[in-house]
Amino acid sequence: MSVESRGLIDRLGAGAWYGYVALVALFFLTPLFSLVIASFYDGRFFSIVDYEFSLGWYEAALASGSIRSAFMNTVRISVPVTILSTIIGTGGAIAYTRYEFPWQERFKLLALLPIFFPLILLGLGMSMWASVLGLGYGIVPSIIGELVWISPIVMFVVSITALGIDPNVEEAARDLGADTITMYRRVTLPLIKDGVVSGAIFAFVLSWNNYYIVSYLSGAQSTITTWIHGRMTQGFTPVVPAVASLIFYVSLLLVVAAFIVEFREESG
Amino acid sequence: MSTIDTLRGRIDAATESDNPLMALVRPPYVLLLPLAILLLVMFVGPMLAIVMFSVQPANSISLNPTVWTFEHYAEIIGGMASGQGVYGDVLVNTAAVSAVTTVATLVFSYPAAYALARKIDRYKTVFLLVLIIPLFTSVNIRVFGWALFLVKNGVLDSVVSLFGVSNYPTMMYQRWTIILGTTYVYMPFMLFPIYLSLLSVEDETIAAARDLGATRWTLFRKIILPLSKPGVIIGSLFVFILSLGADVEAQILGGGSIFTMASNINYSFGYSQNWPLGSAQAVGLLIITLVCGVIILRTINLKEIASRGDA
């Protein structure tokens, strides 16, 4: 085989791999594209030939009182969930990765298990449990419920970063006389900062998009995802794609931001 | 261990034994207690609630430990065994959806994970980002996007009409539409574990096998496949248990006409208001999830993932 034809075959092979991954990427984006296309379309049925672009559904979405209150409820749940799950998850990650203690592996098992549970199972168990405990339903139970699923995810993300730290650095800080608080403030936390920041962003996006847990715990309060679900299953209106797109745009911006934080060193 | 470490360990041990309560406010306990308490109260508790409610009489909304019954289990298992009625359908639908979804995600993810781990350098971050974004978009929004794509007069319809194709059978409200939805939603959970395991295959290993005369097929069968086995196992368990919980997919893409285990549980809870009956169905899901979850967590080594993330 000549050198040129060998090179050609390799390049065709490489092209095929790129082509396949591009197809998978297209598959991943199909419903999201469909959503965005539908949200800008001025009419009930689509047509590529006479597509009529319109921002009308976005205006309608922003003007609607019930949608605005669902947005506010979503924010009221997401912000506390982000702050609390970042603190709780980071604490768990530091404890698990920077210390040795009895029952360490059992702690990891308990702490990460909720990530692997179907959310419908978590939601319905919590719904009954909230009734048994007298916790009730609404914003606060939703916050507590989401913490159960999101704190472990933050712990996972932060643990991956924390395992990359050289333990000798902390040892050195102690030898130089740093007390525990000073060591965390000046050494440990700055080193895991990127993991904590991306963990916090993921926590916000996951809470912002949560459906199953809030649908079981929010009671009479509707959030954006439960509002969308209600309109999809009963009484569809064309404003639904615009609302769904709005929540997707927020997620998109934040996930890109989290990705940049995580991969900054590689590209820089 | 250095002398200083040993001494510090002894001092720590001494302080702890002096006052066990004081030990709790020192690291690592002060750091892990909030998470441990949260999960014991709000994760272990709710899972116990599912088990306890499953043996309560029909339509109970409070727990009464003295009254218990297995009537719901009898009803569910009897229905599944006879293959008739809603439980027969639920069993068939759920098994079909979970099994086909697991196989489909594996078949489609493996080449993509291989390409990302070993063949693609340029635009790799962009590709990874595209594959991650759906994971952080609400499940009902993504499923709704598929409905907009597939429905009559939807996006797909208007694209194929450009080619003069019309009058094809409807694509919504069928079992395979649900499978498309679950394959879509859970594919990242297959792709990323396989991707991470393939990242660990070292170039030297492959070069050595090539030098020893391995063909592409032998190389794949003897080296790449065995080394990616942990990823395949974790991914398959992950997709299997998550697609057992597919409720929104069945509701939206199945149009309420095809019930899976999860959508039937949701129905028992929401419309019939029968918590014990819903719980009894959920216990099966709970046991499978617990077993698979523990296997996944015992297979996952966080240290390895951390070191591969840098690669």
UniProtKB/TrEMBL annotation, chain A:
Protein source organism:
Haloplanus rubicundus
Q: Which residue ranges does UniProt annotate as crossing the membrane?
A: 20-41, 77-97, 109-135, 147-166, 187-208, 239-261
| Source taxon at top rank | Archaea
Q: Which family does it belong to?
A: Belongs to the binding-protein-dependent transport system permease family. CysTW subfamily.
Its protein name is: ABC transporter permease
Offer one Pfam family short name for this entry.
BPD_transp_1
Q: What is its main location?
A: membrane
Gene Ontology biological process terms from the UniProt entry: transmembrane transport
Automatic annotation (TrEMBL), chain B:
Q: Which GO terms describe its cellular component?
A: plasma membrane
Give me any GO biological process, just one.
transmembrane transport
Its membrane topology: Multi-pass membrane protein
Quote the InterPro entries the UniProt record gives: MetI-like, MetI-like_sf
Q: Which domain of life is it from?
A: Archaea
Residues of the ABC transmembrane type-1 domain: 91-296
Q: Where in the cell is it found?
A: Cell membrane
Assigned protein family: Belongs to the binding-protein-dependent transport system permease family. CysTW subfamily.
Q: Which PANTHER family match?
A: INNER MEMBRANE ABC TRANSPORTER PERMEASE PROTEIN YDCU-RELATED, INNER MEMBRANE ABC TRANSPORTER PERMEASE PROTEIN YDCU-RELATED-RELATED
What is the recorded name of this protein?
ABC transporter permease
What organism is the protein native to? Haloplanus rubicundus
Tell me the lineage of the source organism.
Answer: Archaea, Methanobacteriati, Methanobacteriota, Stenosarchaea group, Halobacteria
